[in-house]
Amino acid sequence: MKHTQILVAALLFSFMTSNANTAPIGFGVDGDTTDSTFYSIDFATGTGTTIGGVGGVGFSDVEALSFFGNTLYAIDDSTNQLITINTTTGAGTAVGALGVSVSGPGLAISASGDAFMGDRSGNDLWTVNLGTGAATLLNGSIGADLDGLTFLGNTLYGVDPGNDSLYTVNTTTGVASLVGAGGTLTGLSTESALTTDGTWLYAGDDDGDYFRINPNTGTATMITTNGTDVEGLAIRSTAIPVPTTLALLGIGLFGFGFNKRENFNNRC
Questions:
Q1: Rounded distance, CA 155 to CA 176, Å?
Q2: What order of strands is seen across the sheet that includes strand 115-119?
Q3: Is the dihedral of CA 123, 127, 133, 135 positive or negative?
Q4: In this model, does residue 252 exceed pLDDT 60?
Q5: How far apart are CA 201 and CA 64, in angstroms?
Q6: How many CA atoms lie within 13 A of 98 on its CB side?
Q7: Where would a tag sit more exposed on the chain, N or C end, judged by fewer CB atoms within 10 A?
Q8: pLDDT digits (tens, 9 = 90+) for 74-91
Q9: CA 110 to CA 151: how far, in whole Å?
Q10: pLDDT at 3
Q11: Where are the domains of the chain?
Q12: What is each CA distance from 32 to 53, 54, 83, 182, 240, in whole angstroms?
């Protein structure tokens, strides 16, 4: 029993120390290249690897990425339509017209499929129908020009590159609230993106700047100023996170040790 407890403790310690130093791999898109380019992004360095070649998305100015399940959605603000992107080939497919004109949009989709779109120059927040692409205005004066958007749990976050700040957004009223003192994302470009690995927030922009952000305080740590230019970021959530897997393993080992001890006591 004692050896089992030591093994469980060692496994948990190993996870905590490795997790603290491990950055996620996600996806990014740059709409400033011809027909938009899709990348896999290493968030430890901000380095992107092209998927599908330069311009492989096939839409003129794709920005704003967000997953719903295994489907990656994006917005092309040159044609004002919602699209999907194949994460293996990098090719885009049209879903439908937004019905509104946007500039520098952000996109975030909740676990239940509620999609929200921001606009860096309009102070607006829309809901978006994932089946048709149609956008409906929720609030035309939210209190911030949110370019990047993402959900962390049930909380909608956004970044305003105009004042280098992180916000939360009430999904019922559309009102944005500053997180912390603000101004922590110094140097964030006006074309920016936001995503999460489930613990941290990550921001990037079309100048190659990448930040890791504490979602509770808004405090940002610069990762690099020389990464791959992006205007949209997304990290695919895993069905069973590593912590859960280790917890289940620990419970199993604990139970195994307890069972052995019970059997030994019964024999005595």
A1: 11
A2: 105-109, 115-119, 125-128, 135-139
A3: negative
A4: no
A5: 15
A6: 27
A7: C
A8: 999 999 999 999 999 999
A9: 6
A10: 54
A11: 1-24+241-268, 25-234
A12: 14, 11, 17, 28, 35
- Give first-to-last CA distance, the chain, whole Å: 16
Using DSSP's 3-state secondary structure scheme, residue 242 falls into helix
d(CA 237, CA 175): 26
Closest CA to 213 of 226, 200, 224, 223: 200
The predicted pLDDT at position 9 comes to 46
Q: Is the four-CA dihedral 208, 17, 216, 152 of positive or negative sign?
A: positive
- Please give the structure tokens belonging to residue 40: 């896999």
Question: What's the average model confidence in pLDDT over 246-259?
Answer: 47
Distance between CA atoms of 21 and 44, rounded to whole angstroms?
Answer: 9
Tell me how far the alpha carbon of residue 218 is from its chain's centroid: 15
Quote the CA–CA distance of 62 and 96 in Å, as a whole number. 14
Q: Measured at the alpha carbon of residue 188, what is the angle toward residues 97 and 210, in degrees to the nearest 5?
A: 90
Running DSSP on this structure, what letter comes out for residue 181?
T
- The string of pLDDT tens digits covering residues 114-137 is 999 998 877 899 999 999 999 999
Q: What is the maximal distance between C-alpha atoms in the chain? A: 78
Q: CATH assignment of 25-234?
A: 2.120.10.30
User: What six digits make up the tokens of 154?
Assistant: 């049930």
Beta bridge partners of 81: 76, 97
- CA–CA separation, 212 vs 255, rounded Å? 38
Higher pLDDT, 132 or 239: 132
Rg of the chain, C-alpha, whole Å: 21
Tokens of 27: 């996806």
pLDDT tens track for 180-219: 999 999 999 989 999 999 999 999 999 999 999 999 999 9
C-alpha distances (whole Å) from 166 to each of 56, 91, 116, 183 are 31, 31, 17, 8
